[in-house]
Amino acid sequence: MDETRAFSVLVMVMMMMISLVVFVDSAGVVAPRALSPAREAEALVAVKSMLHDTANVLTDWKIAAGGGRPCGWGLVICNGDGHVSGLDLRNRSLSGTLSPEIGKLRQLRYLFLQHNAVSGPIPDTISTLKMLQRLDLSYNHFTGHIPGRLGQARDILFV
């Protein structure tokens, strides 16, 4: 009888621990796992590929530039761990569309894209950026809906 009771208590404790992990993760307490700098570089190159850069402000967004480390690229802001935490693309004469690959920049806190001519839909993947605090897409030509989950971002201060 004691072994059965001990086993039941052990199972209950394990279930409580699993529930706690799921709760903490869903609450956004745990930072999302960042991609390697090389993967972040690939995501940025994909973003660049869908934008028309008539002012050539994104010319150094190449995998070869910085050895696949985008922290040395223009208009890219990185955190202390060397991950992309911000893009300052405001008023850069950009047009085209915003690539869904933007959602792969999991450590992104700031995305400033205002005063350009970017069009098309806002990618749904933008709502997966759990660390996003400031987002400015104003004065562009976006169409369609605003991703529903975007308004649920825990730390977002400005949209």
Q: Can you offer a commentary on this structure?
A:
- The chain is α/β, with parallel strands linked by helices.
- The chain is globular.
- The strands form two sheets. The chain has a four-stranded mixed beta sheet.
- The protein has two helices and eight strands.
- A hairpin with a 5-residue loop joins strand 2 and strand 3 (84-88).
Q: Any idea of the CATH class of the largest domain?
A: Alpha Beta
Main sheet record: 4 strands, mixed
Helix fraction bin: 10-25%
pLDDT < 50 runs, ≥5 residues:
19-30
What is Rg?
A: 20 Å
Q: Quick one: overall form? A: globular
| CATH fold assignment of the largest domain | Leucine-rich repeat, LRR (right-handed beta-alpha superhelix)
With strands numbered from the N-terminus, the spatial order across the biggest sheet is 1-4-6-8
Structural class: alpha/beta
Return the domain count: 2
- Helices, by number, come to 2
Under the CATH scheme, the architecture of the largest domain is Alpha-Beta Horseshoe
The end-to-end span amounts to: 59 Å
Total number of strands: 8
The percent range for strand residues is 15-25%
Mean pLDDT: 83
Instruction: Find the CATH superfamily of the largest domain.
Output: Ribonuclease Inhibitor
Question: Helices and strands, in N-to-C order?
Answer: HHEEEEEEEE
